[in-house]
Amino acid sequence: MDYFVKHYNNRPWGESVIIITDDGCGTATVTFPVDEPETGLISDMSVHNATRQHGLGNCLLTECEYEIKKRGFKKAQLFAEMDSIAYNWYTRHGYVQSNEIQVFPQFGDDNMYVKMGKNL
C-alpha cells in the first residue's frame, strides 16, 4: 500500500522531496543542501491536529529518514522550537541538540529554534 505522495525538486541549493500522506493529513520536506554533503535537512513537518496521537508523525519521520538513507547520506538534521512538544518528541526519536540556535524573523516568528541531529 502506498501511504505517501512525493514530489521531487532539484534547485540550485540542493535537491528536495516533499512528502505528503495519501490522506493529506501529514506533510514534511527533506532537503539535501549542496553545501552539507551526507546530510538531509527535515523541515515543515506537520500533522493535522485531528489525526495526532495515532502514529502518523512517527510514520512521516521514518519516511523522511528513509529518503535520507536511500541516498547514502548518514545524518538527518532539523530545527525544533526550544522547550516545545516537538523538541521533546524529536528527542524521544533520537535527535540530539546542537549548540546552534536560530531565530527566523523572516517567517514572522521570534521563537528560538535549536538545530538537532541524528546519525542514521
What key phrases describe this protein's structure?
globular, 47% strand, seven-stranded mixed β-sheet, 120 residues, Aminopeptidase, 2 helices, alpha+beta
Describe this structure in words.
The chain has 120 residues and is α+β, with helices and mostly antiparallel strands. The chain has a single domain, classed as Gcn5-related N-acetyltransferase (GNAT) (Aminopeptidase, 3-Layer(aba) Sandwich), CATH 3.40.630.30. The protein has helices at residues 56-70, 85-92; strands at residues 4-11, 14-21, 26-33, 39-47, 75-81, 96-103, 112-119. It has a seven-stranded mixed beta sheet with strand order 1-2-3-4-5-7-6, covered by helices on one side.
Largest sheet: 7 strands, mixed
Give average pLDDT, whole number: 88
Helical percentage: 10-25%
Q: How much strand?
A: over 45%
CATH superfamily: Gcn5-related N-acetyltransferase (GNAT)
Q: How many strands in all?
A: 7
Summarize the structure.
This protein is α+β, with helices and mostly antiparallel strands and 120 residues long.
Topology summary:
Elements: E1 4-11, E2 14-21, E3 26-33, E4 39-47, H1 56-70, E5 75-81, H2 85-92, E6 96-103, E7 112-119
Parallel strand pairs: 4-5
Antiparallel strand pairs: 1-2, 2-3, 3-4, 5-7, 6-7
